[in-house]
Amino acid sequence: MSGRPRQKPVTKMTADELARATAEFDEELVIDSFGKPTSKQQARLERARRKRGRPRVGEGVKVISVSIERGLLDKTDRLAKKLKVRRAKIISRGLRAVLDEEVTLDS
Description:
Layout: H1 15-21, H2 39-49, H3 70-83, H4 87-106
């Protein structure tokens, strides 16, 4: 990936080859030999810095605490398992259905 030609494994190098291969590490500040990252390198760095997590859906998510009857929660969990989705997805679908119904009634 770096564009350098492949070199011998360190274990198979002679003393002179090893000295040449590691000469750059004898300098005190190796950072001075680095230039500005290319746009491709900068993009990789930005991707690495990004926080992991769920992909943004709509305007993002907000974690809330809601009280739900145990029986209703059990049914929700069973349905989520059957459909192979998360509990939050089932709850979101239910909220959307109620909101869509209310909007239809208001029109």
